[in-house]
Design a protein that fits this description.
Elements lengths: L1 E4 H5 L13 E6 L3 E8 L18 H19 L2 H4 L2 E13 L7 E13 L2 E10 L2 E14 L2
Antiparallel strand pairs: 1-2, 2-3, 3-5, 4-7, 5-6, 6-7
Length: 148
């Protein structure tokens, strides 16, 4: 199965350090599903201030990681001419649950799936794991828009 490293992901997404959160996208099934890796490090930008004595990855960044993985899955699957000069924007989060804290020095694994598309609007679901323990899950929607 196809695998994208961080360098290849930067060709699909506009995100850059420190906001590019996903490190790999693999087990890619074109426009259907993929698995993403987020290396949560002790020097990740959010650790210093969230919370210094007991750092955790903010839930909003877990949702952002889901969104980035879904955007990369979609961008990788579409014809380059269709996706050229486009961006994928988060439209809404219908449901997000944070079951366990994600702490530094772990590998956060995101399993995402595109569950519906209608024109430029896509709906996704995802689950986040550390060592096979579910940390979070979400359902969200995004849209493909023209770059300005």
């Amino acid at each position: 199965m196809k695998k994208l490293n961080k360098s290849e992901i930067t060709k699909l997404l506009p995100h850059r350090e420190p906001m590019l959160l996903i490190d790999e996208l693999y087990d890619i099934k074109k426009l259907h599903s993929a698995t993403a890796l987020v290396n949560v490090k002790k020097d990740s930008f959010f650790v210093q201030g969230h919370f210094p004595d007991q750092p955790v990855m903010p839930g909003v960044l877990i949702v952002e990681s889901f969104g980035q993985a879904a955007a990369a899955l979609t961008a990788d699957g579409l014809d380059k001419a269709t996706y050229d000069n486009k961006l994928v924007f988060l439209m809404g989060v219908e449901k997000a649950r944070f079951r366990n804290p994600v702490i530094p020095n772990c590998k956060l694994i995101l399993k995402i799936e595109a569950i519906r598309s209608h024109g430029r609007v896509w709906k996704y679901k995802g689950e986040a794991f550390v060592d096979d323990k579910k940390m979070a899950d979400a359902i969200w929607s995004a849209t493909i828009v023209d770059k300005k």
